[in-house]
Amino acid sequence: LTVVCEVTHPAFVLLDPGEQERRVSSWGRVLATVCRSGRIATLQVLERTLPDSGTGLAEWWATHGTPDGSWAADTYAELIDRAGPAGERHATTLSLSLDMKTSARQIRTAGGGIRGAAAVLRQEMNTLVAALRSADLSPSGWLTPGQIAVMLRSAYDPAIAATLERHGRLGQSLATAGPVAVTETWGRLRTDSAHHAVLWVSEWPRSLVYPGFLSPVLLSTGIQRSFSLICTPMRSDAAARDIRKKKVEHISDQAQRAKIGQIEDASQTAEYHDVLQQEADLTAGHGILRYTGLIAVSAPTVEELDAAVAAIEQAAIQASCETRLLVGQQAAAFTAAALPLCRRV
């Protein structure tokens, strides 16, 4: 059972370093709240670039402008008509998935079935909203089935996204939210009006990085893409057991290497220090999560898609990340990367 919430926030890269650190710590408390629950299966953060329909500029001009028929007013109105649809905007959603197996007892207490699961999920939703607001994030409400249908339709058919935004009542049927046709090849996916490719962030930075290290990927312009961070929370007791297991394995391997005369290399030392840091974070009240990063890139033609994928790969290198094309599983990967459904690859 999954719910989706749209979140608005100020431009992170424009904040001073102290404020960035404070917001990172606040986001860590949000993740710790999710981990402490024990009833959340998956938390998905989805950040998308969308073609701007121009409605925002048009509404601003209608409210603040002075269409008095002068040359300046006419020129400005014409500029808004042309520039609005040519721009792009960013949208961020959080998706929360309830673990039906772990929450079975609470679901039965709440009445059982979908009604009981919805009641339990409502508690988690209220807790998450409170945590987001304390982290200076602005949840703008949980999406309705119609709004989710528009998101699904726009992902599979990007050419219609601006039209659906301009006409708020169109495309709000889940029955017609899916693609009309899908063609999957070894390394690409084609749906109604676009070609897609999904990249997996196979390696995150190995050294310490600044909070906005993903900005080369997230702020890349002229590319329609979706960045999905799929977080699988671990219960505190399970995380503690996993950390103890890793420590025992490392100490045993270290003793065995010393016994046969091998020396410790830098990668093994860094891995052990990472385990110790996780233990310190867990002791300080933070949560331990498993992360999966996926990037879905879309374009009208194969040539434009190849250029966009190459640009995203270079941006990932600038962010000290390594990406790999998820060959042989593009359809399933696109569902996980571009749709707010908390799916895993």
Task: Describe the 3D structure.
The protein is an alpha+beta fold and 345 residues long. The chain folds into two domains: 1-64 and 73-143, no CATH class; 179-345, no CATH class. It has twelve helices and ten strands. The chain has helices spanning 17-37, 55-64, 71-83, 104-109, 113-134, 145-156, 161-166, 215-218, 236-259, 266-283, 302-318, 330-338; strands spanning 2-8, 40-51, 88-98, 138-142, 183-184, 189-191, 194-203, 224-234, 288-299, 322-325. Strands 1, 2, 3, 4, 5, 6, 7, 8, 9 and 10 form a ten-stranded antiparallel β-sheet that branches. Strand 6 and strand 7 form a beta hairpin. Helix 1 packs antiparallel against helix 5 and helix 9 (236-259) packs antiparallel against helix 10 (266-283). The chain is globular and about 85 Å long.
Shape label: globular
Number of domains: 2
Biggest sheet statistics: 10 strands, antiparallel
Listing every helix as H and every strand as E from the N terminus to the C terminus, the arrangement reads EHEHHEHHEHHEEEHEHHEHEH
C-alpha end-to-end distance: 18 Å
Mean pLDDT: 90
Q: Please report the total strand number as a whole number.
A: 10
Tally the helices: what do you get? 12
Helix content: 40-55%
Name the beta content range. 15-25%
As a whole number of angstroms, the C-alpha radius of gyration is 23 Å
Oligomer: single chain
Uncertain residue ranges: none
Instruction: Output the structural class.
Output: alpha+beta
Short description:
This protein is 47% helix and 22% strand. The chain has 345 residues and is an alpha+beta fold.
Provide keyphrases for this structure.
345 residues, alpha+beta, 2 domains, ten-stranded antiparallel sheet
